[in-house]
Specification:
The protein is an alpha/beta fold. The protein is built from 11 helices and 9 strands.
Length: about 270
């Protein structure tokens, strides 16, 4: 694997995003490798649990700059194909037959925050920052939305999605996106205890329990897949999307109206 580190410790596999120089930002190569790994997990009867984490200083900073440059010139059909590949990656992680445990730190922005949502159990270091940044750039958090809505509080999701605010691990915990936050040592202790508990549980019972949990959502995910992939493909090709992507690439702030609000309206 070029963009992942995968290690197996007696049926507990660690999958670590491995582009630390890019803060583990997504691009097609990484998406392809994650998809391949989790496809194989679905067939591995020996597997007990998966730890999903990253190398370096950040878990995942979102979309890779070069990928975003390519995306800006994609046709609608190319964007749709690209969105379906991304959706398949999230779906395969979420439907992995064993518990997927996330260790989050540094930054979990955009698609990285989406990765948080497809884990079953998540611990984040207390200084971690989260952000669903899409609307800031004229896009929509479409592909990740079915999975985030399945996990976190609807009220919190509305705020996170529609404001693109950067929020803390304490806010992520209160909103149901993660299970635990604390110092690095406290997170490691929590994860160690979590894997001990999984190891002491009956393997087939754990798999059947996860299958039961997933059954409540699987129909909705299948129904939403064409909706969300078509939506993000359309948004990327839209005038706003093109303007936002251009701003992202030039590290500028897009202006969405002639007069941007400086102060909230008087009520």
């Amino acid at each position: 694997m070029e963009f992942l580190k995968v290690t197996d410790n007696l049926g507990v596999v660690t999958v670590s995003l491995n582009r630390p120089e890019k803060r583990n930002a997504f691009h097609p190569g990484m998406i392809s490798e994650i998809t391949k790994v989790f496809k194989n997990f679905a067939k591995d009867k020996r597997l007990r649990a998966v730890l999903l984490t990253g190398e370096g200083s950040s878990f995942c900073a979102g979309g890779d700059l070069e990928w975003m440059k390519e995306m800006a010139s994609y046709s609608k059909a190319e964007n749709l194909k690209d969105a379906k590949r991304l959706y398949d990656m999230y779906r395969l992680i979420r439907t992995c037959p064993v518990p997927v445990v996330g260790k989050i730190f540094g930054h979990a922005f955009g698609g990285g925050a989406g990765l948080t949502a497809v884990c079953d159990i998540v611990a984040a270091e207390e200084k971690t920052q989260f952000c669903f940044s899409e609307v800031k750039y004229g896009l929509v958090p479409a592909v990740i939305s079915p999975f985030v809505n399945d996990r976190a509080s609807r009220a919190n999701i509305s705020e996170w999605f529609m404001t693109a605010k950067v929020f803390t691990s304490a806010e992520a915990l209160a909103g149901g996106l993660i299970n635990k936050t604390g110092t690095a040592a406290e997170v490691d202790a929590y994860l160690e205890e979590t894997f001990k508990l999984i190891a002491n549980a009956a393997p087939e019972a754990v798999r059947e329990t996860k299958k039961l949990q997933l059954s409540y959502s699987t129909v909705a995910w299948k129904k939403m897949e064409p909706v969300v992939t078509k939506l993000i493909a359309a948004r990327r090709a839209s005038a706003e999307g093109q303007k936002g992507l251009s701003a992202f690439l030039t590290k500028s702030v897009p202006q969405w109206s002639e007069k941007a609000y400086v102060h909230p309206p008087k009520i």
